[in-house]
Queue: 2 jobs
Job 1
Amino acid sequence: MTEAFLELRDVTKSFTLPAREVVALSTTSLQIEQGALVCLLGPSGCGKSTLLRLVAGFEQPSGGNIIFHGKPISSPGPERGMIFQDYALFPWLTVRQNVAFGPRARGMGRRSAGDLADRYLDMVGLNEFAEVWPHQLSGGMRQRVAIARVLANDAKLVLMDEPFGALDAMTRERLQQELLTICAQTGLTVLFVTHSIEEAVLLGDRVIVMSAGPGRVVSDLAVSLPHPRDPTDASFNDIRRGLSEALHGGHSAAPVANGEPQQ
Amino acid sequence: MTFLGRAVVALGLPVVCLLLWQIAVSGQRYSLIPPPTEVAMQWWDMLVGGVWDDAYSATMLEHAWASMYRVFGGFGLAAAAGIPLGLLLGRVDLVRRIVDPTLQILRPIPVTAWLPLALILFGIGPKSAFFLVFLGAFWPILLNTVFGVRNADPRLTEAAAMLGVGKTAMFRKVVLPAALPSIFTGLRLSLGISWVVIVIGEMTGVRTGLGAVIMEARQLSRTAVVLSGMVTIGALGFFSDYALLLIGRRLLRWKDGND
């Protein structure tokens, strides 16, 4: 690895409430390599979503730098596509128009943007639904549209904020497999926030465990199991147990050095 | 339900009311309120003439036209002023801080209270009616537009920003469409209010208009004419709302559970 694809250097984030200052993310340094699917695992309040929003450029760090492709991040941009848990599709646009939205916003003609959208809708298996409104789709289908939307917009890094959290178990499993397939096909880099240990082990090439109060990284683990991974497999369970211990270790008031990332 | 089925269900109640009205007044030797049959005859006479052939015969279209002109004129003006101002107030904090307190003081003043002032400012005539309709229609459009802009889902703005929409295009590409349903609610409310206000507006001494007819017939104790005017206002209000509803459905056909 010559130059990190994404690098967080001593990043902190605190919010000022009327009464006090809340540290959402204490000093964190991380390097994310290109082509990896990295899971951020932790309970609510551990700063995993904050970290994602910082990388997306929705929030500015209170301290430190976030370097993407050698440049500091200062605002949201199409090279960093975000997948929200609640989809955030534009309800007034059809499925095709939603996927074509990014390319259109960046100046592509209607015709070419539409063709591009169709290609990515094909990829997520929704080409038949190009003309319908988002509200007519199921949750799983909406999330597929959201994925097609960032892919069509040339995202190099996809940020997923508990993307399958609102879906039923079967749909979630299907989308998890589809995400792995898409990653294998495109070599996409993914930062995937989840609070499910199983999901993290199932998907991640690497799992970063975070803990709350204040939000910090407590463990960083490479997962080298081959795909497809079997949650009933013994080695899968070993990893799961290890992550579970890391999570609970983080919960106890044990004096884990504040924000010391274990790289 | 089929269209016919819905129509039958919707018409049931008015038909029953008309029957009760007919029964209540027809048994008496003398009634201040004419039966619906007489009102229907009067209405027909006002529309095309040939029944009574008096001063009111075949004048309905002229009055209806005058009222519609004022309603849609005042309403259109209110929309032309209220939507842009609402967009500005909802979007730019500084403008809201400057303008909003003044608006909040003006807002509780009822249209009726403006009537004397309107007569001084615009004189006795259609201009005053126009102005009063404008005032009545302005507030719901303004408030709903502001509400729509301020309640545009921040998630959608974030989604657009991450897809490459800049600050200047954000308003047109996200905030405006997100506010559209709310703007339309404001328009529908305002159009309804415009029809309410028109009767007050036409008390300002104008010679034409459904409100003027009602006021004049009242002084002449022509209750059937009063009721005919009321029926016409009701019908025009209904159809204009329906037209707006159809336009809204077309523009907002992306919405879930469109009524």
Job 2
Amino acid sequence: MTRIERSYPEPSINLETERYWQAAKDGVLLLKKCNDCGKTHFYPRAICPHCLGGDTEWYEASGRGRIYTYSVMRRAATPYAIAYVTLDEGVTMMTNIVECDLDGIEIGQEVEVTFRATEGDQALPVFRPVSS
Amino acid sequence: MSRACQAYIAGVYEHPTRKAVDKTIPQLHAEVALGALRDAGLTKDDVDGYFCAGDAPGLGGLSMAEYMGLDVIYTDTTDTGGSSYVVHVGHAVEAIAAGRCSVALVTLAGRPRAEGVTTLGVRDYGGALPDLGFEKPYGPAITNLYAMAAMRHMHEFGTTSEQLAWIKVAASHHAQHNEHAMLRDVVTVDDVVNSPMIADPLHRLDCCVISDGGGALVIVNPEIAKTVGDRCVKILGRGEAIKHLNAGQVDLTFTGAAKSGPIAFANAGVTPADIDYVSIYDSFTITVLETLEDLGFCEKGRGGTFVADGNLISGVGKLPFNSDGGGLCNNHPGNRGGMTKVIEATRQLRGEAHPAVQVADCTLALAHGTGGNIATRMGSATVILGSNDA
């Protein structure tokens, strides 16, 4: 698809999240799980929000999921689709849906991660429909 | 009957302005404070507790206490966004019951309209937020977040845009009688669903107004309430809760009202069936629909059917709501609608709402605030109020 997309603002990066954003530049979506309780959480933190355990570990996500909900922002200069995607790993993350007809997006639709350059030199995980 | 209570609302005031180009925010705080104190028949020298939230300039309430010349021994600056002032009502009851203060003043003021704020931009709460990097780049304007909650509710329960529109229609029926309301024209379901789409599925008329102004409350102990007289309103129950994205286990079909509501009802010893009038936070139509379900006025998922066909219109339906026109039509000062929810509930219980919207024999009312955002993290607060003879 050649639809014009809005430009993507720089993410705010801190000590806890710099590895996530470094991986994004390499085209990899990372998640964090807790070695104490075994659960994955989102957004990634040094401290597990399920059990407050401090032994959390990065791992590579499948990059696949389904649209939990979405909305097309019609009043923006360049309309765009914001969404929550539930990853196969069981956590739901805010994102944008790209490379599709904005009028054809559906809840439950299968999507996969792709990346967009931001206004600076970072990369942002976004999702596109899986072509059937 | 005469229900026991530990504190009363003795004074309320809603600033009549909706666009304050010629006033500062501290000035608006002082004007609403004076209005509520006059309504209570008290003066600023009677105030010994001051409550405000993030709209008040300065560190906590320090600068505003100084600006208004208050001499206080108790302060609470809990900020849960637009619900803060509903939270403050509950906290004031606890402070008064503990003997920490006897006359609590709560103020809100803002001028986003004069400052050109829109709901299309992305709101920035500061650089140290842990969630910031994972949300802001995706363009979470206010409207498209609430829209995602509405979209999911429609998907799971079959809720329709026409059903959501009935909430705006009801608010507009009330606003026509409010001389201060920003939008006084009565609208139809067709008007709402044919208004421009902002963020699917929310149309322009699903959104609240942006307005300047503010409001204030004066909350007093029972001894002072006796001297103020029978315009005092009983505070019978309060509950609050925070709901958030829960480590990525996201469910946008309910709000924090699912927790704050039952706590408030239990605290007051009443049930939803006992309530004569409700003030429900109405930043968007979907906010009202989910909140009514969560508070138990109908089953989860049945909100669309519940609000349809005028059921929220005073004198027409079973559950009159937001009889001032609410945030959807009347006023949403400083983008924080909790204050006006408590004020209109107080008017109803005093029998001082506009005659065209006054609920007959209004004895028990509920006011609910939703601060933050229902599609990310929110502070929810519920209070149950009673007339002086409740």
